[in-house]
Amino acid sequence: MIESAVEENINVILLTPSHDLSVDLFKSDNELEKYARQIRRLLKESGIGLADSYQSFKMKAVAGDTLVQYLSQGNHPNHKGIN
Questions:
Q1: How many CB atoms lie within 10 A of CB 48?
Q2: What is the CA radius of gyration of the chain?
Q3: CA–CA distance from 75 to each of 20, 44, 48, 63, 71 (Å)?
Q4: With contact defined as beta carbons under 8 Å apart, do 40 and 47 qualify?
Q5: By the 8 A CB rule, do 51 and 16 touch?
Q6: Can you tell me the distance from the alpha carbon of 42 to that of 14, in angstroms, rounded to the nearest whole number?
Q7: Spans of all domains in the chain
Q8: Which pTM does this prediction carry?
Q9: For each of the chain's 83 residues, which pLDDT tens digit applies?
Q10: What is the enclosing helix (H) or strand (E) of 49?
């Protein structure tokens, strides 16, 4: 699908998952980390754009931020979470 879009000169941007409060971001083998790695691998193979919200949330967690303030529900970013 990515290749077809690129052939048609359509800009493609892949998006990693946003945080989910039920997932431990500090576990390197969590499901969201696996999906994010897969998406980044596709990016390298195809050379298209990436919006890495997973990494943004992870950086906030590492900095000590409470991630619930960035979510409107358990896994949906609010206004603060998309900026």
A1: 17
A2: 14
A3: 4, 26, 25, 19, 7
A4: no
A5: yes
A6: 9
A7: 2-82
A8: 0.84
A9: 888 988 899 999 999 999 999 999 999 899 999 999 999 998 888 889 999 999 999 999 999 999 999 999 888 999 998 87
A10: strand 49-51
